[in-house]
Specification:
With about 775 residues, the chain is α/β, with parallel strands linked by helices. The protein is about 40% helix and about 10% strand. The chain has 27 helices and 21 strands. It has an 8-stranded parallel beta sheet with strand order 1-12-11-10-9-8-6-2. Helix 22 packs parallel to helix 23. The radius of gyration is 26 Å and the shape is globular. It starts with a strand and ends with a helix.
């Protein structure tokens, strides 16, 4: 019985790639230095999987930034503004597309399906020229082969690539990138031929868009693509990998009917109906089924007995020699290795499995199906499952009663938003086009050192508070010098917006090295929600009150919303997600009320990940949006009309949920806009009326590029064309923690200057 891994984390157990990338970008190390770190990581991963007994080991899943951007490079689909002149694409062009440079902006970045991973959106048009411009897939296959390790090269499939693309600037919005299918297939044929010549016997094509609600012409594109590629697959085994949801019946019918395909990978974790589909529709004789029974998106140990039962049911349908035990998706969405967690509570640790442990689980089940069951391993797993179900630390009856009592109310504020904004303006007295930032300011090395030393008890609590107070004072003074209207304290006490709150809520556990890649070099360390959630004490009031005492201007209290805490955590899988979310909402509600009582007049409750959690299938979306929006309203339903509630969202496609965003009933929403080429504004051009305050981002904070005053003023003018002057706010796309002060100061200076310029122009036209 064979075993397979869809993909593996890239950053390394101690974020080695992150630090190598940032050193290279800062000019402190060479391209050779970066490539050496990457090579060492890749080789280590392949050896680890080979030693664990995995048969189908993936290659080309490593990336310096993002696998979709790697495919753009492979196809040579570089937008004109990067002045690419042909040949193998190097780091200069590659990272300019990802991050922008001094003269041109980066490409759009958005969420990878319903995960917290981001990808760089391809920009295509009818005149896009495709050439084979990155041989990375072949190079990495050869690299593994030189180690004596046979791998399965992984490619983003041609149809998924095009369905994730957008029309380039200047191209009609009605242009369909899918019309370019015939143009990119010759490149895929070249890549396939090179891999075959290098000795590859298997190739994995990732086509996760197959789990979406596709139209008939989109499904036909899969048939067209793989029928045309069929001749180049001669002598190879090729399989299509899907993940993140059930494959709809029509899509299942399409891919299982493809003649040149040797197998199909199915997600049996999020695809809760997939097993029934295989049973009812059957599975084509002679093809391999890669059964994703080990969760690639969470950190709970697999219930081996239950998974083995599922595999045995599939074995009866597809045959023993055609069933492959696999992960549900790439393991890049989970932490690297539980071995590195020396401080984690031993009981909770026994309930977990990170990527390295999931590799072992996959192989253990493959061996069990082959008659080589490790009884001790399975017994230990069963004991851990039982321990988790019966542990008293998981359940808090008081919390469960409070969450159950939420039923029967929609938790809306009594007064409508227009009346609230009037009351708030009388108290806050803000100018038109008020300026603000999203929350965080640059996280300097000194700041990180202070937090590290505090956690290690190397400095006293008094020394820590003194250092953080000095940082807050510096950030407040800078904002006053820049003449920003509504201030933030900069969040110097927080390493991460979710981790900080989770550390102070019951029901959460934390790792030391449980890092997961979000994009590029950006890593997050998701907390683990293992039990019922409550707030033992105030979490932010001390710092917010301190910051407000330093200025006469409004100071925002900064909170992370319940849906974002949920979606950016590893969530317990023993109860519905909405129940956990309601528990978090009640905890945040207490914090909001304490901030208001402390005199904080503006409170921001970030819901950056609300769109991210939207189910991929339309039939499931209304239920999610109902409880997600309700959770947000719970947090602030009890505040006074004069208390202004802000929220923030970023790096997702919000246009299709705009009515749910309105239903959140926030007083002000700040929302990413500039990096996505201002597509948010199109929803207002189409007639959607928005009566609350809104701040579409005026510049991209994920790029080191500094926008000019004129560029920002032009963006604001575009907003004024579709939004009322009295509701428009001026702010960056997102928080500033990843930037340096040398970038932040001039960018914010230009932002405030642009706002003042527009105020003057608007006043002169009255």
């Amino acid at each position: 019985m064979a075993s397979h891994i869809v993909g593996y984390p890239r950053m390394g157990p101690k974020r080695e790639l992150k630090f190598a990338l940032e050193s290279f970008w800062d000019g402190k190390s060479s391209a050779d230095d970066l490539q050496k770190v990457a090579t060492d990581l890749r080789c280590s991963i392949w050896k680890q999987m080979a030693d664990a007994g995995i048969k189908y080991i993936p290659s080309n899943t490593f990336s310096y930034y993002d696998q979709v951007l790697d495919t753009t490079a492979m196809l040579g689909a570089v937008p004109e503004r990067y002045s690419y002149t042909g040949g193998e694409i190097g780091f200069d062009i590659y990272f300019s597309m990802a991050r922008g440079n001094a003269s041109v902006p980066a490409m759009e970045m958005t969420k990878w399906f319903d995960t917290n991973y981001h990808f760089i959106v391809p920009e295509l048009g009818p005149n896009t020229k495709f050439t084979y411009s990155s041989h990375k897939a072949v190079s990495e296959y050869k690299e593994a082969k030189a180690l004596g390790i046979e791998t399965v090269p992984v490619l983003i499939g041609p149809v998924t690539y095009l369905l994730l693309s957008k029309p380039a600037k200047g191209v009609e919005k009605s242009f369909s990138p899918l019309s370019l299918l015939g143009n990119i297939l010759p490149i895929y044929k070249e890549v396939t031929a090179e891999l075959k010549a290098a000795g590859a016997s298997w190739i994995q094509f990732d086509e996760p868009t197959l789990v979406m609600d596709l139209e008939s012409h989109q499904l036909e594109a899969f048939t067209k693509a793989y029928t045309e590629l069929e001749s180049s697959f001669s002598g190879l085994n090729v399989f299509i990998e899907t993940y993140f949801a059930d494959v709809p019946a029509e899509a299942y019918k399409t891919i299982t009917a493809l003649k040149g395909i040797s197998g199909v990978g199915l997600d049996l974790i999020r695809g809760t109906k997939t097993l029934d589909l295989v049973k009812s529709a059957g599975f084509p004789a002679g093809k391999y089924l890669f059964a994703g029974v080990v969760d690639g998106r969470n950190i709970w140990a697999n219930d081996l007995a239950s998974s083995l039962s599922t595999l045995q049911a599939l074995e009866a349908i597809v045959g023993k020699d055609k069933l492959v035990v696999s992960t549900s998706c790439s393991l890049m969405h989970t932490a690297v290795d539980l071995v590195n967690e020396t401080k984690l509570d031993s009981e909770i640790k026994s309930w977990l499995a990170f990527a390295a442990q999931k590799v072992v689980e996959v192989n253990a089940m493959a061996k069990a199906l082959a008659g080589q069951k490790d009884e001790a391993f399975f017994s230990a797993n069963a004991a851990a499952q039982s321990s988790r179900k019966s542990s008293p630390r998981v359940t808090n009856e008081e919390v469960q009663k409070a969450a159950a009592a939420l039923k029967g109310s929609d938790h809306r504020r009594v007064t409508n938003v227009s009346a609230r904004l009037d009351a708030q303006q009388k108290k806050l007295n803000l100018p038109i086009l008020p300026t603000t930032t999203i929350g965080s300011f640059p996280q300097t090395m000194d700041l990180r050192r202070v937090r590290r030393e505090c956690k290690a008890n190397k400095i006293s609590e008094e020394e820590y508070v003194k250092a953080i107070k000095e940082e807050i004072s510096k950030v407040v003074k800078l904002q006053e010098e820049l003449d920003i209207d509504v201030l933030v304290h900069g969040e110097p006490e927080r390493n991460d917006m979710v981790e900080y709150f989770g550390e102070q809520l019951s029901g959460f556990a934390f790792t030391v090295n449980g890092w997961v890649q979000s994009y590029g070099s950006r890593c997050v360390k998701p907390p683990i929600i293992y039990g019922d959630v409550s707030r033992p004490k105030a979490m932010t009031v001390f710092w917010s009150k301190m910051a407000q005492s330093m200025t006469a201007r409004p100071m925002k209290g900064m909170l992370t919303g319940p849906v974002t805490i949920l979606n950016w955590s590893f969530v317990r899988n023993d109860q519905p997600r909405f129940e956990t979310c309601y528990q978090i909402a009640l905890a945040i509600k207490k914090e909001v009320e304490d901030l208001e009582a402390a005199g904080i007049q503006v409170i921001q409750i970030d819901e950056a990940a609300l769109r991210e959690g939207l189910p991929l299938r339309k039939s499931e979306q209304a239920f999610y949006l109902d409880w997600a929006v309700h959770s947000f309203r719970i947090t602030n339903c009890g505040v006074q009309d004069t208390t202004q509630i802000h929220t923030h969202m970023c790096y997702s496609n919000f246009n299709d949920i705009i009515h749910s965003i309105i239903d959140m009933d926030a007083d002000v929403i700040t929302i990413e806009n500039s990096r996505s080429d201002e597509k948010l504004l199109s929803v207002f051009r189409e007639g959607v009326k928005y009566g609350a305050g809104i701040g579409p981002g005026v510049y991209d904070i994920h790029s080191p590029r500094i926008p000019s005053t004129e560029e920002i003023a032009d963006r604001i003018n575009k907003m004024l064309a579709v939004l009322e002057t009295n509701i428009l706010w001026v702010n960056p796309d997102c928080g500033l923690k990843t930037r340096k002060y040398g970038e932040v100061k001039p960018a914010l200076t230009n932002m405030v200057s642009a706002a003042k310029l527009l105020r003057t122009q608007l006043a002169s036209t009255k």
